[in-house]
Amino acid sequence: MSQAGWQVDPESGWLVESQTIGFQVRWRLLRLLHHERSPYQDIVVAELDRFGRALFLDRILQVAEMDEFIYHEMLVHVPLAALPAARRVLIIGGGDGGTLREVTRWPDVEEIHLVELDEAVVRVCRQWLPQVGDGAWDDPRLKIHYADGYAFLQEAPAGTYDAILVDCSDPGTPADTLYSETFYRLADRALAPGGFLVQQALSPFIHRDVLAAILRRLAGVFSQSGVYFCPSIAYLIGLQAFVWGSKGTNPAAGPARPAPGGTRWYTPEVHRAAFIVPPALENLQSATSG
Ligand code: SAM
């Protein structure tokens, strides 16, 4: 059966993901739960052996039940714990609800704006991956905007957000503009003094030159910027990188306040350790392809 480029090997029930740099993944498929094509992308939710339920967009894995908490806790609690307070938070992307779930755990957050390009992703994830959002979609502080994140920031009033969390798909997808220097300038303008932006930025090993270019763009806009890491199991990239750009707060200094209880990965020690850059990853910013 071949659906829109999807290869599900009828014999063995493997789901074959699209080619990534240097390797191709075959997932043992237990059940194909949902498949639709939206105006923006191909959306699949599958039950995978070991990894649990998983969301694929345009044949690229986005979230898997087994380890999504590591990524979402590190994307949210590192910036929010580094800030003395955060009243207004903007999430760009994040249609699976995991980032939103972790933001709603902060009692001092008064307003959450989630800007997701594709309404179908939210609808499909609420239906087939309810444990990821875990009820956060009904939080009264939430305002959802179905819009392009770049266009949304072009209209955002200056100095509005304490934190901008960009949980978007990779470069080379509808998220491409969210890795541009102009986008970072728009984010800089929309951030309140001391506020900062954090964005998922692939892997320091497999996507080293892409990450390096992103870091150079950020350094060209923000007075302070850098990278931190966490393990990534389901993305099969070893380490997940998060880049940050700040208007004053340095998250590498460690948490300024405790994160909400009950986290499964994030701790103050994990926060500090995430900024330790081993020699092999030093000078990432100056890396170029080849
Ligand atoms: N954790 C995943 C990763 O690291 O690749 C990202 C998951 S999240 C589901 C990605 C979301 O970004 C998708 O729902 C996608 O529709 C959304 N997205 C992509 N481009 C966007 C844009 N330009 N503006 C807003 N949302 C966008």
From TrEMBL:
Pathway: Amine and polyamine biosynthesis; spermidine biosynthesis; spermidine from putrescine: step 1/1. The keyword DNA damage does not apply. One of its GO terms (cellular component) is cytosol. InterPro entries: PABS, PABS_CS, SAM-dependent_MTases_sf, Spermi_synthase, Spermidine_synt_N, Spermidine_synt_N_sf. It catalyses: S-adenosyl 3-(methylsulfanyl)propylamine + putrescine = S-methyl-5'-thioadenosine + spermidine + H(+). CDD domains: AdoMet_MTases. It is an enzyme of class 2 (transferase). S-methyl-5'-thioadenosine binds at Q41, E116, D148, G149, P174. The keyword Transferase applies. Keywords: Polyamine biosynthesis, Spermidine biosynthesis, Transferase. Catalyzes the irreversible transfer of a propylamine group from the amino donor S-adenosylmethioninamine (decarboxy-AdoMet) to putrescine (1,4-diaminobutane) to yield spermidine. Homodimer or homotetramer. Belongs to the spermidine/spermine synthase family. This is Polyamine aminopropyltransferase. It comes from Thermaerobacter marianensis (strain ATCC 700841 / DSM 12885 / JCM 10246 / 7p75a). The lineage of its organism: Bacteria, Bacillati, Bacillota, Clostridia, Eubacteriales. The gene is speE.
